[in-house]
Amino acid sequence: MPSHKVLRLGDKVRLTTPLILAPLAGHTDRAFRGLVRDLGGCGLVVTEMVSSEALTRGSEFSKELAAVTPDERPVGVQIFGSDPARMGEAAAMVEDMGADLVDVNMGCPVPKITKRGSGAALMKDVDRAGAIVSRMVASTTIPVTVKIRSGWDQNHINAPELARALENAGASAITVHPRCRSEHHRGEAAWAVIRDVKRAVSIPIIGNGDVHGPESAKKMVEETGVDGLMIGRGALMNPWVFRQIMASDSTEPSAEDYRILFQHFIERLREFLPERIVLNRIKGFIGWVTKGLHKGTGLRRDVYATKSLPELVGVFERYFELDRSAEHEPPEMSYSSPPERLGL
């Protein structure tokens, strides 16, 4: 995607690239958002989803999830809930906290979310969904965007209908993940649904689902006419994906790229998390990002067995020292003091 137009979301947000890091619970924390920003190509990052109920009741955990920093702007905060008044109050709060836009989760398929009428359950209640967006737009000056699915199930594909209601309610943009709630992330994303939503409204439409690199990005744009792309799981497996798409370059990251990636991620996590949580976050991350890495199975096994950060760093240092394959050869370096190398 070497050529693109600037993507504008409402009157206030201007993205220099039409690529967005999707909100992913348990993954898109401050550290990962910063990591993606550093690698380049990403126009907007979005927080993990935050409960409007918990946020407006003063939950410190929810405030931490919604916390953003100036260096990651433009940045959006995603919230979920089913009460229009509470969602309006939460929208005003995240604006005060520094968010450039507020996104509404109307696509989460997890039962503990949908059974309370939130997430994908709002696909079944178009009037309530519109009332939520309308109240939020009236409560804040930043753009209100929405992330939706195809529908509740295969018998109720109503994304175009819902999109029109959301546009009428004042939404500045809509992201479409073209799978039903019942599909979760199984099967192939039905990009035709994105195309149908794009044709149904005049506000920007952002496509999400099964984009993992330059070729699939180009194909989605050509088949659907979307204004932008949102990438989630593809970015967990390949944090360089945004840069690759913008450069139309599918070159695989080198071992040195991975070494620097792990180093920087640990450094960012340590800025705001205790050692135990940093260790757990790295273990969760490595299951995604090493799937295509040379000897990644052994690296994952050794990382999962670690019980401290210095031990974890030692595993990484030994891996990059021993990996001498022709395609993944790191430069010569000293590993005599691995903990100090990563500032541990």
Structure description:
By secondary structure, the protein is of the alpha/beta class. The chain folds into two domains: 7-247, TIM Barrel, CATH 3.20.20; 255-341, no CATH class. The chain has 16 helices and eleven strands. It has helices at residues 30-39, 52-56, 60-66, 84-96, 111-114, 126-139, 159-169, 191-200, 214-224, 233-237, 241-247, 255-270, 275-289, 296-304, 309-322, 338-341; strands at 7-9, 13-15, 19-21, 44-46, 50-51, 75-80, 101-106, 144-149, 173-177, 205-208, 228-231. The strands form two sheets. An eight-stranded parallel beta barrel has the order 3-4-6-7-8-9-10-11, surrounded by six helices. Helix 7 (159-169) links the parallel strand 8 (144-149) and strand 9 (173-177). Helix 4 runs parallel beside helix 6 (126-139). The radius of gyration is 20 Å and the shape is globular. The two termini are 39 Å apart. Mean pLDDT is 91; it is low at 325-344.
Tell me briefly what this model is.
This protein is an alpha/beta fold and 344 residues long.
What brief labels describe this structure?
disordered C terminus, eight-stranded parallel barrel, alpha/beta, 344 residues, 2 domains, single chain, TIM Barrel, two-stranded antiparallel ribbon
